[in-house]
Design brief:
homohexamer, 3 strands
Chain lengths: 254, 254, 254, 254, 254, 254
């Protein structure tokens, strides 16, 4: 099993680069950053399972990594799931803010992915009330672009572009506030686990399972999972009682 | 006949992919989504006949499908027909909203097609009162583009682009509201049929014909079909009495 | 003579496509649409003579056609002639609006041609008072473009673009209102002739000549023809007395 | 001498196309249009000498022509000279407006050339007070463009583009008003000469010299020629007394 | 020495073109234009030494020329030096305005160079207080462009573009006002020297040295040279006492 | 060791170009400019160590240089570190302003690098409160661009572009004010060291170490270093007591 896990890690995170020497400050930032992703993921129902957290540099540019159950076998994502995914992606940046009161360049890729999700929600999935069920953008087909020096001109007006910016900003900042709230609620546990990670360099399934039991999730009502059609909550959430459908864009209760 | 139907399905929806495993929540979303298209189509006069609904995944990306009578032998579409077509396309997204109070990424292609229709109505068919009988855009000729790296610059002003966005948004949201109203009016029938579809995975002509008889269409006056020149209603509508031509963009009565 | 006419029709409208089956509604729309062009052309002095109207589908995309005397041997067009040409082009769309209270996609090409004329009047011919004698645009030379991936950037400001949109819109809507007025003034004749056209599928010179005698043109003063320099009306108009030059953009008297 | 003149005409205006048949109205428009250029040129000091006016169609697209002394041996043009050149170019359009109260497509090339001059004055020669001595644009080098698919992006802001549009519009409309005023002041002479031109089809040097003596130029002070440095008027103007330098953009006295 | 000077002139200004015949007015404009550059250069401290002024046409497009000491061995330019350089470049245009009260197309290249300097000051050298030490633009690398059809899109907003236009306009117009003031202060000397230049066609070092002694520079305080760090004025200026650093963009005292 | 240092210098700054002759003023500007970088770097904790300062021209375009410890082995940069780096880069321009009251073109490259950092902070690293954790831009991949003539269109609205300009401007001007304050606080030391540098042309490690001991850093609280998670200040700063996390964008105490 260890061999198999190793193979997956090689694919996901690249070869170990033990000779890449981070200075002590960088190492601390990386530990809290990766743990930030993990704790937000464990606190939110319906997000991908975390298998391993490591601060051993690997591959190109990866200073640490968090391995979640792959999501390639999902065919649909609800708005709530995308919002939780955004919070997990911003967990690293939120950790830097909460712990150091200062942020670093380490979140660059996370921000790019979060922005891609938020833009797709607004421009392609019709998940913004302000912009509605209009497809303002299409998935790009890079294959065609290699033949045609076609410029994908923006088809909408400046005022719509401004509304898009506002919706994207709001989605991203709500997800960031959610990650911040989860980390602050679990601050002691967070500090304790980071100290362990800085010593062992890796957290595996058993430690992660223990961590999950200690984590305080979001208070009920802050963001409801997708209820089943018959009014019962879907089995993936594990919460005790169903919630009525919430208005979109409701901010967490903090 | 079954063979022939199968052949058409292979072309329309691709080969069956029974090994594509949706999780239970996804399967429920797909069933209500496809049935949403069907019920809106059955409730509106003059839309393409529905032949089959299935939630067996097929081809590339299709998680379910609804087969309507092809419309390639139509040469003209009236404004009212295009509006009904938009409502049918939005029936899937409307079903998710009505049933789950939450929407998913599953409507991406529907939104793109609806937007294409709305933009063509405003920019090419002169079907918006605000923009008038001006052709702001032309059908693209991709053949020419492969030779010329020509950029089709927008020929109109920002203020016109803003008006276009407003008209497109209004057309799409009216069609969405119409689909929502039809599904809410038929909610009990909708839930019952979805339960059946989740069991049998397919609805064929006989079931669909039965469904059609139970469905409550739009109340008279909410959106008139194209009357014949002599004042009598065209035979495709089946409604009892003619309606005077309606002002464009009149909202449904809900 | 019939052979010669046939040859011209083959060139103008393509080969007959009797196997293209329009549904009854489409056929009615096509008949009124084509007759709309014809009646507006017959009602306006100085427009091209109509030779034939047909609702037999031909060539690529032509569901019906109206053959007018070719205008290739004209070297100059006055502003008034271009405005009359626009009204004739919009006669089809106006017919759908007047008769069915509803418009179809059938006018797409007409709108594109009308828009081209209106834009050329404003951008290249200096025929808009608001924009003046400035050439904001030039006739494109596609031959050169095939070598240079040159992008013809708009050379004027957003505010000018907005004024251009306003002038183009105004020119098009005035021409549309003019076509509407002519068709409403001749509504009984219009219905009667359409019934005949739906039976015979074609109107030839004799029928068109008869039609011309029955048509009521625009009331005097609604749009003056180009007067001769000496103050007498040019012989093409056939009206009894000269009119003083009119202010540009005067709306019809309706 | 006739042979030599013929050779120049062949180069300037192309081969005679006597088989190009204009209808009577077009022929009248062409005669007044060409004579409009001539009369404005004869009325303004310091414009190129007119050698011949003809309404025999020639070359590609030329329905008539006015031959002026070539200006290739001029190395500098003053602002006043460019303004006079613009008035001459607009003389054709002005003639249509004055005589027919209606304009035609025949001025398309004139408008393009006038606009080029006005834009160069504002964007390259610093001849607009509002825009000042800034070079907003450069002369294009088409030779380089054939190698580089370089897009000459506008380097200035929307507000500057708006100011440019305003200056260009003002320069063009002032020149147009000037041409109108000259033609109205010489209306009887204009009509008489046009009648002759319609008969003879050509005006040669002797007739043009006679015409020049009868023409009433602009009233003194309406637009001053370039004074010599010592305060005396340059010999090209032929006016009796020097005028003080005028404020730019002063409108004609009409 | 004459041979050497001649060789430099051939390189700088091209071969003599004595057969290019300017008309008398053009010749006068060229003489005052070139002398304008010279007098402004002689009046301002720290500008390149003038070696020769000529109104013999040379090379392509040069109607006259002013040879200054080459500046290729300068590695740094201060803001004040760039402002003086702009005033010298605008000396030709200023001469036309002061002497003829009318400007010509002859300053086209000067305006382009002045604009390039002003834009570089604002966009690349951080020399505008309003725009600050931000590099809004980079020096273009034409070598790379020949491979990539890369479009250098403007990276800043419309409002910044508007501020840039304002700063560039202000820099250019201040330099123009400065040149005007110098020429007006030296008007009699200017006229006298121009008369000589029109006779001899060339001014050489001895005449230019004499001219320099007669010229009245800017009044003290109108634009200070770069002071040395220790508070004494740098030796290039020759002025008697140091001036405190001036606020940027202070207008000349006129 | 000298050989090794020489080799590094050859790589960093190019071969010595002793034959490049700066005039005395330029040499003084270069000395103060380079020393400006050094003094700001020595005054700020956590910036790269300065090894050598030289005013011997080297390589292409380098008139002087400052060698800092390479930073290629850093994997993360905090917001505070990037702000300090910007202040060091602007130290040269600040020196010109403080010492000469006038700036030169010598800071062009520094401004470009500072702007790149500020834009990355706002557009890619989410380090601006106004713009938030949205990735408005991505790192460009020039490799791909060489195949595709793809134009990287700005994906955000004009209003966002305006906000970006404001944030970039604010970041750059704060860093500039910080550099100015440090240089003014150390003015006497600055002048003394510059005099030495102008004599010896080079400052090496021993002189730089002495300089560091004399320099007055920023007053406590003006810009805190990254505190360690446990509340103690990281060892790189050398300051006596920890500071609470500061609000972003707090201006220095001057």
């Amino acid at each position: 099993m260890a061999d198999f896990d190793n193979a997956i890690e090689r694919i996901v995170a690249g070869l170990e680069k033990r000779n890449r020497l981070l200075n002590p400050m960088e190492r601390r930032v990386v530990a809290f950053h990766e743990l930030g992703h993990t704790i937000v993921a464990l606190a939110l129902p319906g997000t991908d399972t975390v298998h391993k957290v490591s601060i051993i540099p690997r591959g190109i540019g990866a200073l640490g990594y968090t391995i979640q159950r792959p999501i390639e076998d999902r065919y649909l994502m609800t708005r709530a799931e995308l919002e939780r995914k955004m919070a997990v992606l911003l967990g690293g940046r939120a950790a830097e803010q909460v712990v150091f009161g200062e942020v670093s360049t380490g979140a660059e890729d996370d921000l790019a992915r979060v922005t891609d999700i938020a833009r797709a929600m607004v421009l392609r999935y019709g998940m913004s009330e302000a912009l509605g069920n209009v497809a303002y953008d299409r998935e790009r087909t890079p294959f065609l672009q290699s033949n045609l020096p076609m410029q994908q001109e923006r088809s909408y007006s400046e005022e719509t572009a401004h509304a898009v910016d506002g919706e994207v900003h709001s989605l991203v900042e709500h997800a960031f506030a959610r990650a911040i709230a989860i980390l602050e609620r679990n601050r002691a546990l967070f500090d304790r686990t980071a100290a362990a990670l800085l010593k062992t360099e890796t957290l595996n399934q058993p430690e992660i399972d223990l961590l999950k039991h200690e984590i305080s999730g979001e208070p009920p009502g802050s963001r409801a999972p997708l209820p089943s059609p018959s009014g019962q909550v879907a089995e993936t959430t594990g919460e005790g009682q169903p919630h009525p459908p919430l208005p979109l864009h409701q901010a967490p209760d903090q």
